[in-house]
Specification:
Layout: E1 13-15, E2 22-24, H1 28-37, H2 43-50, H3 54-61, H4 69-82, H5 88-95, E3 100-105, H6 111-126, E4 130-135, H7 140-154, E5 157-160, H8 166-169
Parallel strand pairs: 3-4, 3-5
Antiparallel strand pairs: 1-2
Length: 171
């Protein structure tokens, strides 16, 4: 079955229906092994370990049809054992999506902002996405620069919380 696991997991995975793909649950041991080897585990590595093609690995990791249940499980186990972690920028190039949402707000010292951020985090997680947070302080120029950067393609969506330079964004 599919489950979200914690640091004591052995072979769990989580399907993200909205953002697509499969997240592998990695233990601390896997993260340490990847850092120590100083080499990114590639689809080719997982394919060789599972005895399948790279296309089959891609289908499994992107939760696509056309793969038997036995092969799917073998690929997921091979990916987990190898410590495979999806390369987010490569996935973004292939899919045209980043799975990232930008949040621009002034600060976190006010409970108003922190409550909005907490709600945004919960909803993003529910959708299988992550947030990139930008704090602007009191600088209109910084806010405009951060929004411009985020709109350049590094996020799929943007949440502006009470932008001070609102006239700049309204056409």
């Amino acid at each position: 079955g599919q489950s979200l696991s914690n640091s004591s997991c052995t072979a769990g995975h989580l399907t993200m229906p909205r953002c697509g793909g499969t997240l592998l649950a990695l233990t601390t041991r896997h993260c340490e092994a990847a850092v120590q080897s100083n080499r990114r585990i590639l689809l080719a590595d997982v394919a060789a370990r599972a005895g399948v093609s790279m296309m089959t690995v891609s289908r499994v990791l992107n939760n696509r049809p056309g793969v038997s249940a036995d092969t799917r499980e073998r690929v997921l186990q091979a990916a987990h054992a190898a410590g495979y972690v999806p390369h987010v920028p490569a996935r973004g190039l292939a899919s045209g999506r980043t799975g990232m949402l930008g949040v621009v707000l002034a600060n976190l010292s006010d409970t108003y902002y922190s409550e909005i951020l907490q709600g945004a985090v919960m909803e993003a997680e529910a959708q299988g996405c992550r947030l990139i947070l930008h704090l602007t302080g009191t600088s209109d120029a910084r806010e405009i620069a951060q929004v411009t950067t985020l709109l350049g393609g590094s996020v799929d969506g943007l949440l502006l919380v009470l932008p001070r330079a609102a006239d700049h964004y309204i056409a």
